[in-house]
User: Which sequence fits this backbone?
């Protein structure tokens, strides 16, 4: 049974599952900001995964990157595993654009802006993404 | 012929080559901060690489992560491709520790501290790493 960290759960919305990861949308309407969380307990670092798990995660990072590019056409993707605050292994995939609220700095950090989604607006984003995601054979709701 | 971005070159020291990437040490003595730069021109995103290049890069990220863990035993690794400032594809692998100058925030950003290495101190770091790196069959100076 996969245990999702409480803070990750609270800060994001469920989108769906891939083979190895759960895909979620961060509750910050300032960016299209997804996270992939490998459904494996007690891993913090990429190197805590087995070789095949790591390759599969890289594959899912590429699938989600392509999906974001397809739907939102960002200027740049920011892809990162930090884990300084939440130790459970998770990978951020964030659409960045010139002139966005923290450009060109990263989006993480204690003084960085956050605007929660209101009025179920996150569902619009998830619906847009899901149209592309359902084309992937390893995606399920 | 591989073209390394001028800013990347200026901001970091050459350590060595792996199969697909060049490995460099960022000139910021506040952290053990390495970067892997795939030796492929005109790529900005992970998804601009071919499938096999991406898998090989993931492998090299894991090798360098293990090397840093072995030599410096950090509390957490921060691994990221941002590219908001320098667009050429490069992956940061940074050893983070509780209480380091920006902990738990990320190390990147315009107001973030930097202390250049002095008196060839970077060579000490590179020498320490190289002892581990030379154990890798795909590493060359």
Assistant:
């Amino acid at each position: 049974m996969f245990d999702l960290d409480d803070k990750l759960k609270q800060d994001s919305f469920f989108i769906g599952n891939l083979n190895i990861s759960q895909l979620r949308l961060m509750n910050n309407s300032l960016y299209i900001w997804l996270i992939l969380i490998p459904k494996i307990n007690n891993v913090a670092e990429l190197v805590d995964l087995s070789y095949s798990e790591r390759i599969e995660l890289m594959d899912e990072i590429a699938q989600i990157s392509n999906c974001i590019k397809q739907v939102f056409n960002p200027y740049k993707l920011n892809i990162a595993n930090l884990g300084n605050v939440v130790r459970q292994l998770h990978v951020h995939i964030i659409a960045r654009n010139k002139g966005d609220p923290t450009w060109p700095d990263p989006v993480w950090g204690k003084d960085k802006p956050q605007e929660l989604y209101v009025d179920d607006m996150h569902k619009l984003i998830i619906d847009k993404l899901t149209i592309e995601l359902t084309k992937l054979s390893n995606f399920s709701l």
